[in-house]
Amino acid sequence: MRTEEIKNLFAYVLGEREIAFQYLGYSGVVLRTAEAAIIIDPADKLRSEELKSLPAGTINLVLFTHGHYDHFNQKTTVSLFKATGSAILAEPSVAADLKADIPQEKLFAASVERPFQAQNITVRSIKGTHVGPILLYHLTIGNISVFHGGDSGYVPLQGLKADVAFLPAGEPSPTASPEAAFRLASELEPKVVVIIHGSARQNKDLENLIHQKWPNVRVIIPAPLAINRVKLD
């Protein structure tokens, strides 16, 4: 079933302002638009049979916000690279951990000083707040903008806006919370909020906060492994 869901994600024909994603758990997500496919913080949530089901050459980029177990797993990452050959952009300490296993031309340390560009993808890194270093990512994929908050607490977002925001509600993070995620949403002004990395209660609290303030914003609390497809505008 897990393998079939991933195959289904890549079987969709997506329109210009359409996005589809599969939630892996914690803050992990496999994200597709008509122009690119990106994996963020897969941790150890992709099994070997699922990696084999990823269509060859379809993953453009793998991102890691930081090195905690619920975001990054060395063995899974190396297997993912062997299966896809995709570029990896990671918080610098994670990139350092991968240096011996990933070819130099495919491994990049993310920097808050300069955006990362790969084909039609632009990634801006924002320093988050957590136990240890963490980077948050603002992606522009063609004409779609996406924000991923890892499991950070609130930090100012320098005027960035996003069509879709993956926002952490809390557990097991000591810094993320519904209130912090709501503040991130207030700056991003997203059309769609996807709530990740929280308990059922925290997820619902964040959903309520958003609906009270912006009743027209679509809120998704994704079930693990389920595919969600969103048409923007």
Describe this structure in words.
The protein has 233 residues and is of the alpha/beta class. It is built from six helices and 14 strands. The chain has a seven-stranded mixed β-sheet. Helix 5 packs parallel to helix 6. The longest helix has 14 residues. The protein starts with a helix and ends with a strand.
* Biggest β-sheet strands, sense, barrel: 7 strands, mixed
From the helix content, strand content and strand pairing, which structural class follows?
A: alpha/beta
H/E order of the elements?
A: HEEEHEHEHEEEEEEHEHEE
Number of helices: 6
Mean pLDDT comes to 95
Q: Uncertain spans, ≥5 residues at pLDDT below 50?
A: none
Shape: globular
**Major sheet: order of its strands?**
6-5-4-3-2-1-14
The amount of helix comes to 25-40%
Radius of gyration over C-alpha positions, nearest whole angstrom: 16 Å
Strand content: 25-35%
Tell me the number of strands. 14
Q: For the terminal residues, how far apart are their CA atoms?
A: 32 Å
How is this fold's topology laid out?
Blueprint: H1 2-11, E1 18-25, E2 28-33, E3 37-40, H2 48-53, E4 61-64, H3 74-84, E5 87-90, H4 92-98, E6 107-109, E7 116-118, E8 121-127, E9 135-141, E10 144-148, E11 164-168, H5 178-188, E12 192-196, H6 200-213, E13 218-220, E14 227-231
Summarize the structure in short:
The protein has 233 residues and is of the alpha/beta class.
Write a concise keyword list for the protein shown above.
233 residues, alpha/beta, seven-stranded mixed beta sheet, 25% helix, globular
